[in-house]
Design brief:
alpha/beta, two-stranded antiparallel ribbon, TIM Barrel, 7-stranded parallel beta sheet
Amino acid sequence: MTSRERFLAACAAEALDRPPLWVMRQAGRYLPEYRALKAKSSFLEMVRTPALATEVTLQPLRRYALDAAILFSDILVIPEALGQGYHFRDAGGIGMEFRMESRAQVDALAPADAVPERLHYVAETLGMLKRELAGSRALLGFGGSPWTLATYMVEGGSSDEFERIKQLFYTERGMFDILLEKITSALIAYFKLQIAAGADAIQIFDSWGGIIAGQDYETASLRWIRQIVAALPPEFPVILYAKGTAPHVLDQAFTGIRVLSVDWTNDLAMVRRTLPANVAVQGNLDPVLLNTTPEIVRHETTRLLEAMRGTRGHIFNLGHGIMPHARLECMQALVDTVTNWR
């Protein structure tokens, strides 16, 4: 069984001798080879240059026996394609070129049919990766959820309080809905582009889903995710990662997704028992553990594997992205423990 076959079998909730493994943000700052490349090219240059994005995507696969590659890119390429560029602030975090504050600004956003041309470099990168991988590893595309992208667009970048997006949601629902409809349409076009270019699965990052309370999570986020999944090919593997949304796992499972990626604050075995049998789970080792020691990583990884023993449909991953100060030897211990486990 190839890594790609193993990954797709897990997405289909089939029985396996061990779960497939990949790690969110597996291509990035913890790798010395990435830092060497970053010293020569900016992040945005790497994202927009297919040869560089391909190289970064493949770096962790050369070092570790991972079962999947995930496209090196950023969720904010969608706002950029719609006409709202982004950058990295000197003090840290994301800054948008402007805040989305008026209906006129929303109306001025580019239509969804502009997305394939403006993000042609993503399709080129995926095509290069597909050729390089030659069916040996699964290839994942991704994007942000409409709600999460809207938070950046309305807040004007990274935020601690998310005051503006919540105010828009509660006081100007008409403008909110039009903005989310535009983002949703753009994402549908973008994900179809990724699938046509060779992606085996798509992960939707609802990174800020946990900031909206109770039943409003359905209206603010899940309804738009449902529209996206319904517009993609039937049974195509869509993974949903939504941080801080434990009360909503059942609702998330019934959006049509194939895999629910769970953050590290959840009991993964309990979530697995809660979900329908045909919805797989992904996760959910605490990423901080990769900053500790190989012994601790082996112990905690084994404990999670044993807790999931006998279950179908498990993709081993972290409960969030790998941290910049993760130790290479800890990552190796994780990979060895999972790939040797039976």
